[in-house]
Specification:
66% of the residues lie in helices and 0% in strands. The chain is built from 20 helices and no strands. The chain is globular.
Length: 419
């Protein structure tokens, strides 16, 4: 078997195409489509060049690179809330003469491609090529994969967390520890690898090495905590600073309830149609084999989304005022899929997924939860399994994801809050 056949066999061509085409959709939306659209009241005209990838959290990472970490325990927002690995790597690349924007974009995009490759390999090992392709397509085309291209930590975190999960699943404990340490140095949610690894080690009766590796994962966060102790005399500075973004912790019951009420009140008739049609689609899913009939349902759901969902490119004014149907579906639909697939995907992925959901749903906020849910790779694993079984729906959902991805990219280019 020649080299090109080996590449095809390993799925590298498929993964690269998924990454490249989905990133091109983002770039076209940001640089070609966004300038042609009207700018909302609280937005700004898109900037051509690398600065189009630079907004919101990007500014904090740039500040860390430029002036270092800052913190005062006064309830305000400071850069110490953001973990250090992306700024460190960006600073290293900048020594080559590149600007912050160029270096950070290159790091995040390269890491995101790496995450897709590792993910494909992991899924392929246990479930075969078809499931691996669907799962990878989900991860690449999900609307919030936008954050694998702009200056955020999604690419790095997905790469390190997927590599850690895959290594632990294959009982490669040293590799799992190394990748896990990098995860916890990238984002606080990486610490959910620790209880997940410990539980799986206990459940599967693994050796002492598994427990040591599990605990070692926390070293990334521990080193950052040690830095905070030395720099600010407060080892938990990165925790205390969260008061600048939220007043309380715990499940944001009122926020989620208000979203549901908003969805229902916006159009009770359409909401009822969604519930009834959703039940009928599930009840008669095995009988929906006629292409014309499926097309009718696809068109119906598109109309429903335009009526009650989140047509982002039509949104004017404060983005927080959007009807949050997509947010609710991604967050709680992903949790439901994870539960339904718990016996089909690796145990470590299942446990990590539930622990991660427990963390992100108890931050006291509803903002950005859908982006954090996207960062739980277990959900993409579960959805890939589902779409492999119902492939006609898979193509429709992937196309719908592409539309949403482009619309989110347009909003980000307009410097609007997306997630």
């Amino acid at each position: 078997m020649n080299q090109s056949q080996n590449i095809l066999r390993n799925g590298l061509v498929f993964v690269t195409v998924m990454w490249l085409v989905s990133r091109l959709v983002i770039i076209v939306a940001m640089l070609l489509i966004a300038p042609l659209l009207p700018v909302a009241e609280n937005a700004q005209a898109p900037i051509y060049g690398w600065d189009v990838f630079y907004a919101w959290d990007s500014i904090w990472y740039h500040r860390i690179v430029a002036v270092g970490y800052e913190f005062v325990n006064d309830g305000k927002q400071y850069s110490v809330a953001f973990f250090p690995l992306l700024p460190l790597l960006t600073r290293v690349i900048m020594y080559s003469g590149l600007s912050f924007q160029v270096a950070a974009v290159l790091i995040n995009n390269a890491a995101f491609l790496g995450a897709l490759i590792v993910f494909y390999s992991w899924v392929n090992e246990g479930h075969g090529k078809n499931v691996a392709r669907w799962s990878t397509a989900v991860l690449a085309w999900c609307p919030y994969s936008l954050y694998g291209t702009v200056i955020y930590t999604e690419g790095l975190f997905l790469l390190f967390s997927i590599a850690a999960l895959r290594a632990f699943d294959k009982k490669q404990h040293l590799s799992a520890a190394i990748w896990g340490i990098l995860s916890t140095a990238t984002r606080i949610t990486g610490v959910m690898l620790i209880p997940a690894f410990l539980y799986v080690a206990w459940k599967q009766g693994r050796s002492l090495k598994a427990y040591v590796a599990s605990l070692a994962v926390g070293s990334g966060a521990f080193l950052f905590s040690l830095y905070c102790l030395i720099r600010f005399s407060d080892a938990l500075a990165f925790v205390r600073v969260q008061r600048g973004w939220r007043e309380s912790t715990g499940f944001a019951r009122e926020g989620w309830w208000n979203m549901l009420v908003q969805i229902v009140q916006s159009s009770p008739l359409l909401f009822g149609v969604i519930i009834v049609s959703g039940f009928l689609l599930w009840r008669f899913r095995q009988k929906l084999v006629d292409i014309k009939l499926r097309s009718v349902f696809y068109f119906l759901w598109l109309l429903l989304w335009l009526g009650i969902g989140e047509p982002l490119w039509l949104t004017q004014g404060n983005p927080f005022g959007k009807i949050p149907l997509v947010k609710m579906v991604i967050v709680f639909g992903g949790l439901y899929l994870l539960w339904r697939s718990r016996a089909k995907i690796p145990l470590v992925a299942v446990v990590y997924g539930f622990f991660s959901y427990a963390l992100i749903l108890n931050t006291g906020l509803t903002a950005s939860v859908e982006r954090y849910a996207y960062g739980i790779v277990s959900v993409s694993f579960a959805l890939g399994l589902c779409l492999n079984r119902y492939r006609a729906w898979g193509y429709a959902i992937t196309a719908f994801f592409a539309v949403l991805l482009a619309s989110l990219a347009v909003q980000f280019a307009h410097n609007q809050w997306v997630a």
